[in-house]
Amino acid sequence: MFLWGEINLAKPNDLAENGASENGIQFVPTTKPIITSFSATNSTVAFSKSDGTSYFLRRQRDQDGIVTFSETKSVKCKHVVASSSGDSILLLLSRDGSVVYVELGASAIPRSLQNFIKKRIIQVACGDQHSIVLTEDGQALSWGSNARGQLGLTLPETSVVPSPTPVAALSGVPLVQVTAGGAHTLALSVSGTVFGWGQNDAGQLGLGDTTDKSTPVTVECLNLKKTVSISCGERHTAVLTKGGVVLTFGSGGCGQLGHNSLLNELTPRVVAELWGAAVTQVSCGSNHTMALVGPTKKIYSFGRGEEGQLGNRLTTDCSVPLPVLLPHDDRSIQQIFAGGNQSVALRSFSQEPEKAHPGIITVLDMDTIDFWLSKCQNAKSWCKIRKQIEDIFSSTSSLNASFLDRSVDKHYRTSPRSSGLDLVLLSTALAKLATKAKVLQKVETVVRDCLLPSLTGQPVGFEGLRVYYLLVELLQVLVRDNFGEMLSVRVADAFLSLHQDRLEVLVRLWSWTPDFFRSAVETFCKASRKLLSSLDVDYREQADFFMKTAGVLQRLHSASSSGSWRLAESVFHVTTVTNTIEMFEQLFLSCNSILQYYPWFLPELNDEEQRTLIKRDYYLSILLPLVKYPCILPVECKLKLWKYHLNIATLQPGYIEFTINRATVQQDTFQSLRTSSHDPKLKLAVKFNEEYDMHLGGVVMEFFHLLAKELQKAEPQILEKNDDGVAWFSRNVAQLTDEFFLLGTLCGMALYNQCLMNIPFPLALFKKLLGLKPTLDDLMELSPTVAQSFKDLLDYEEKTVEDLQLDFGGDAEDLDLLPNGELIQVTKDNRQKYVDLQVDMVFSRSVEHQFKEFERGFLRGCPSPEWRMFLPDQLMTLLKGEEVFNWDDLRQNAKYQGCTSNDEVIQNFWIVLAEFSVEQKKDFLKFLSGTDRIPKVRSSTIKIIIKLSCYPEPELYYPMAATCYWTLILPNYRNIQTLRQKLLHAVKYCDTFGLQ
């Protein structure tokens, strides 16, 4: 052993025999017992030997400034493999994972930490006034002073924690090292993520600032650097990467950072002098740093040298790494220690010391699974297996460290694009685990009862999210084997408890592995289907369970929709919702039948009838909230739920009544909205002057049809149309606030009254109403030529696009795309930004005021927010109607009054309708219903009623329509020619419908 610095541990006869080096380096002969660990601070020095004896000395400075050391004291502790000392405490780690702590006072009585920590410990570390240990399942526990936040426990800064307390923020991170400086602490994960907290006045946390941190924060600058070890000085830190690169940061006043400077560094900086040297160890003293180069076994040191701790013949500070001048070229150096003002180098031995505690986190691997499967039927082995399952599957850290992708160190690349997991191995392992039901059921129990309750909603770092991969795979296995129903609910709870930003990170990770993402969605869909199919009025909690898995699907859908990659909408659909709605409809019909006979005497209902009513209300209570989870709903289910909500919303008595002249429909409507106050939740009733009384249904439908046509040609022009007839807000009439508000109000009212407002708005409008950003594809609908030019710009293959002479300015009428945009030229690197800003200019910035007023009116006109469950194209069809209609369905669904489908006049009617052109069929639809488009909400259920009117001379009469009820009143024409003539005339002049 070699040592140098301010303390002499060599015996006098050793010095006499071997001599003290002229460099101040002492050589202690290698004899049994050997030194197994060493630590030091500015006030203590401690070391342990293989015979189970540990020693410590107290450093003292007298009034003249002379440093002396107290008499060496010893403590007995078997098989010590690591030690760490602070100003007042010494921690000794034994090979069996137990820890003894010694308060460095007069008594120095060793005490066990087993009363506080039941798990095996793999590392210990002490700062000046605080301590931290790491358990075998990767959990960090700290205690002592928290004056600078060095405990990481989110406690008051003045507090002192007397006993080991888990660092909760890192509870799910698989840690492999903890280390402490004077009043700062750092931790290292299995994949090289570094976390820091505590004192940061010199930048010793490497975060780019000098603010203390009371909870662990990721040292972002070290991400993807493959960090394998950390060492802390009093106010500086050194890290070592797998490639042998040393980076330092923090206080540099003594040169301890090795950058040929005395300045502090707030972020990690490579020690250039050691670049390419393949360093294998770094160790920090209070104000100096040492590095061991693996191939040559040379030691380099830098920093404070006043006490000779640099070992380079100097007693001055050194700001660049210089070799430690050992007495002779010794290539047997095995380990280096630095602490306080002391340095130590241990040599290798012909006879190896007692095997040290492995110091690695416990993980799940294929060998462990094979052992479980092969021995689980053996009663004695099963006890051991159960304990192993409980230890591993109750620990988030252990699971997060399992199944890492170690090929070419891929797990060190853990980032928003890579989980660091071998997903094939993970899937294979859990599928193999499922081959033994006994083992799988035990795993399920531990995960449900121990692991899931321990998860935090905001794990630090990406590695803390790996456990959610395992949960999805495990849930997939269980759902496939038709059990684990309650686990699916608990897992859903865990996902819903994730903070939104953490969930978004997780989903972005999944999006880089589309197969896994799809598998996760399908797993929760299957769990949702199982829960939905088992709904029971006597077990109402089942509905809450279903809402949780549906909630997970909705969050996954939302995160997926906002990304660059997304699954098809149908993947999220829970198809059994359709069955549930059908069951409700059957119950509704049954209840109507019951209430027909007992409208006022419900107590007289028998038990079965009462249960039917209760069951109807139960299913309705489930169906109505489903609008919160629209991703799981096929569009047919959305339409039915929309109707249910509207029917409930419009139950209150009264109407909004409009009396309108056909010739001035827009002016009269605007005037009515401006001068009358009304409850927007009431249904609309319309009466055209000089016509029949106030009407709902078809008359209201016709009112919106006429209004839509008038609004597109109104003056002043608030809408502009392109050559294809697509309408958008006029840019030059932003001052017409009221008109845009009223336009939005009427569109909302049409939607709320289940009518159509067929203004040819582009899909972009409905995206904006739903809070989505329009894209270049949307611009293609509104301005095809301009959009194509932007597509060509993005596809331009030449080296530069500067020759196009484009900039980020605006034309004579436009705002600049960017401040001083005319000075910023469009290049190949920024052209995507240029296009995005142009699209935003068209759809947002240039009509910002117009859209805001329209949106404000739309929300007033449609006070039921459930319309947000529709996708943009669905919402557009809901408001504008369907242009294409299956006329065969109309015939198949038709009902007859006073006639049958076999009557000759009815047969003739269908023949004539089939002969109509597309435009004539639209005219017929308008004649029948008041509009020439099909309401999406009723497209699959429209039932035309044909009522035969018998006249002595039917040729004198035209067909008539009761638009409220989709009823065609057809005279009993004697031949097809007359029917054709009269029907064509009626549908052609249907604009005069209802006139007296």
UniProtKB/TrEMBL annotation:
One of its GO terms (biological process) is protein ubiquitination. It comes from the Eukaryota. Keywords: Repeat, Transferase, Ubl conjugation pathway. The keyword Nucleotide-binding does not apply. Gene3D superfamilies: Hect, E3 ligase catalytic domain, Hect, E3 ligase catalytic domains, Regulator of chromosome condensation 1/beta-lactamase-inhibitor protein II. One of its GO terms (molecular function) is ubiquitin protein ligase activity. The active site is at C964. One of its GO terms (cellular component) is cytoplasm. It holds the Pfam family HECT. Residues 676-996 form the HECT domain. RCC repeats lie at residues 91-137, 138-191, 192-243, 244-295, 297-349. InterPro entries: HECT_dom, Hect_E3_ubiquitin_ligase, RCC1-like_dom, RCC1/BLIP-II, Reg_chr_condens, Ub-ligase/GTPase-reg. This is Probable E3 ubiquitin-protein ligase HERC3. It comes from Gadus morhua (Atlantic cod).
